[in-house]
Design goal:
Radius of gyration: 66 Å
Shape: rod-shaped
Oligomer: single chain
Largest sheet: 5 strands, mixed
Strand content: 5-15%
Distance between the termini: 195 Å
Structural class: alpha/beta
Number of domains: 2
Number of helices: 5
Amino acid sequence: MRARILVAVCVLALGAVAPTFANAASTDADADRLSAQLDQLNADPSLGNLALGEQARAREAVTALRDAGRRERPHYLFMAEQRVILAQAAAQAAADQNVLDQLNREHDHIMLEASQAEAAAARAELAQQRLQYQAAVEQARMLQQQGAAYSQQAQQAQAEAEQARKLAAAQARAAALARKEANLAEAATRALRGNSSSSGSSNSAGGGSARMHLSDSSFSAGGSELSASRAVRLEKFAKNHAGQSIRIVPRAAAGMRVLAGRRAVAVRDALVAGGANPADLHIRAVASGGKGASVDVETSD
């Protein structure tokens, strides 16, 4: 009987003490859970060093939860949980703010570089436009100078052409007068000599040999144009010796061989104009000697 009573008392005692042990175990589990969350937050490399004040207050709230009595436990548990949540949120907000600040700094740096690049591009474009303007001004100046030079050359060419036309007209009149005088002289000679010609002269008609010397003064100065009187004499020479072989021998001093050759060609053209057969005309090589550039015209039987 006594044993049963003892067992019953023990059971009642254990029943009274068990809720206290359960309450203590539950309090320690909540405190451990919240403490583990704080430890995890502190160990996070990106969040552990942020919101340190909130983390410290959260640990104080967990410590107060461990020391709280049965009646005060729900209040301290709520406060500890809220402190832990607040510490986590504050650390995350601080991390987000740091990221935002970094992004703002990078954005400012990018905008600064873009502004500098834009300013450099504007300076480069301005320099290019300045060079293009200078090139356009220089080209306009060159074109203006060329236009003035062309205008001056055109005026000079026009004046030279007018002078050449007047000179050609004067030479034509002189040649016509010389030809007229020669015809009159020839008519007078024939009247006096009964239309007979002397042999051995440069103007003899018919067979036999004849020679005509055209000195440097028979041509224009430095040129190959025959004087009017010499052109008339060559015309008569061609008529008087038609059908005969005529040699044209240019002679030149040093440095005037080209001019002598040109004058020989002019003599040939004058003989052809006088009626000579081009096949009977033979221009020989330029011979050295003499003064200036002269031409000899010779016939042979």
